[in-house]
Hints:
With 151 residues, the chain is an all-alpha fold. It has 2 domains: 3-106, no CATH class; 115-150. It is 73% helix and 0% strand. The chain contains 8 helices and no strands. The protein has helices at residues 3-11, 18-21, 26-35, 42-50, 56-61, 66-71, 75-106, 117-150. It starts with a helix and ends with a helix.
Amino acid sequence: MSSSTYIVAEHYCVSHIPAATSLGSRLSNLLVRMHQGHSLTEYGLDFLRRQDLPGLYRLACGEITHEAYIAEFDGEYLARHEAAKAALQAKESERQAREAHYSTRRAKYRSPKAAPKMDWEAERKLRRAREQEATEAVNADLKLTRFSRAC
């Protein structure tokens, strides 16, 4: 989650919606355009109209101000928004802790490809020599079989 998209989503009280904080999502792009003061296309306005976001469409159309948009929220919606925001932040901090734990654990182990190249090369040469000996043995057996049939 990008911090700038989170700040914009927080400004419109929709930071609890994953699409609002995901960089490049349709909702996130529309919120950024609104935040920058640009007008939205008909398709963008239609998208906002179909979403279950109280007042965001009217704010985008310019029918109400941001202060009226915020005042329009009921206590239940704001409580759900705060609870969802806290859950999202807890989830993000847990992910960061797991990522930090994984990166420290990963550094402790050596990669099998870190073995010296000469060992791999010597092993390859031995395998090739064994394959060559087996091929020669099969060819010699075939020659012996052909010779015995010819006599």
